[in-house]
Write a structure and sequence with these properties.
Blueprint lengths: L1 H10 L4 H11 L5 H11 L4 H10 L32 E4 H8 L5 E2 H14 L4 E6 L12 E2 L2 H8 L3 E4 L1 E4 L2 E4 L2 H12 L2 E3 L5 H6 L1 H10 E2 L2 E2 L4 E2 L12 H4 L41 H20 L1
Parallel strand pairs: 1-3, 1-8, 2-4, 3-5, 8-9
Antiparallel strand pairs: 6-7, 10-11
Helix pairs in contact: 1-2, 2-3, 5-6
């Protein structure tokens, strides 16, 4: 009987020590309900329930404290962490490297700078496409700098080589731009390049829209990778919204009225009037009536 009760409560997930204590207190003939009540009263919890409850119970943090435990990092609306709220990044390796090398040298360090920039922002899916022949020893007509970086990025599963081979001494290169656009389109990500891919835009109307809306241009300023704050122009999304799957709408900021106190729109004016902050906004007609009434009162006082 003792062993069967031990097995029963062990299956429920209670620790053997707790079960033994309760059975010693209540006796071996105690009913299972009584044993269970005593286990609960002691504060013993099934191990399975404890392991389930731990991640769902947030720890209390002192008010004003910014520190959170690793399990409580920022969660999106769908319960996924912040890295899932960021778009996948597909980098045109040749374009970035040549841009960093002032169109004279294939500078692999430029690729590393771009990858690091997106990593620091929290992007987890980053792919760089480079033609396979860039693995070969550099020639005078195509110099390459810091070639070892390509090997390091390949080991990290960040860099992908597009196929190329030699046929009768001539190099046959697959079109790496098509890989870049295709992967970015399928992943619903962002293309990092200063190329407009006009030939591919004409090839596929869906790609045309995608390239227009998801192309992130950039500059290198003193070995610093710098994308624009407004990737789609002054009236488009901010850079952070452009790189996010769920854009955050900015709070509505009241724009001051360009006419100021001379404004004749009254309460119908859509702009902000600091001088009307503590008074109800009157219509134009009501404002005129109030002014004329005030003038009439002044006249009356003067005549009196």
């Amino acid at each position: 009987a003792h062993q069967s009760k031990m097995d029963f409560f062990c299956k429920l997930g209670y620790g053997k020590q707790d079960i033994c204590k309760v059975l010693e207190n209540l006796g071996q003939e105690a009913l299972e309900d009584d044993v269970l009540k005593e286990l609960i009263r002691m504060g013993s919890k099934p191990q399975a329930l404890e392991s389930q409850a731990q991640p769902s119970q947030p720890k209390l943090v002192a008010r004003g404290s910014c520190s959170t435990s690793p399990g409580l990092k920022w969660l999106g609306e769908d319960g996924s962490d912040s890295s899932d709220s960021l778009r996948p990044i597909v980098i045109d390796g040749s374009n970035v490297a040549m841009s960093h090398g002032n169109k004279e040298v294939f500078s692999c360090w430029g690729i590393q700078l771009a990858v690091d920039w997106f990593r620091e922002r929290g992007h987890t899916y980053i792919k760089v496409f480079v033609p396979l022949w860039r693995k070969e020893p550099p020639r005078q007509d195509s110099p390459i700098a810091d070639q070892h970086i390509l090997g390091e990025l390949e080991k990290q599963s960040v860099l992908v080589y597009t196929p190329s081979r030699k046929v009768k001494g001539k190099r046959v290169v697959c079109y790496d731009d098509r890989y870049i656009v295709k992967v970015a389109y399928e992943k619903d990500g962002v293309i990092v390049s200063n190329d407009h891919y006009r030939d591919l835009q004409n090839e596929n109307p869906e790609w045309k829209w995608f390239i227009e809306q998801r192309l992130l241009m950039y500059s290198f300023v003193s070995n610093r990778f710098m994308p624009p704050d407004d990737p789609l122009g002054r009236h488009g999304p901010t850079l952070s919204n452009f790189l996010s799957k769920k854009p955050v709408l900015p709070e509505k900021k009241w724009q001051p009225c360009p006419y100021g106190k001379k404004c004749t729109y009254g309460n119908k004016c859509k702009f902000y009037h600091p001088e009307r902050q503590h008074q109800a906004q009157l219509s134009v007609a009501d404002e005129l009536r109030a002014k004329t009434k005030g003038k009439e009162e002044q006249r009356c006082r003067c005549s009196a």
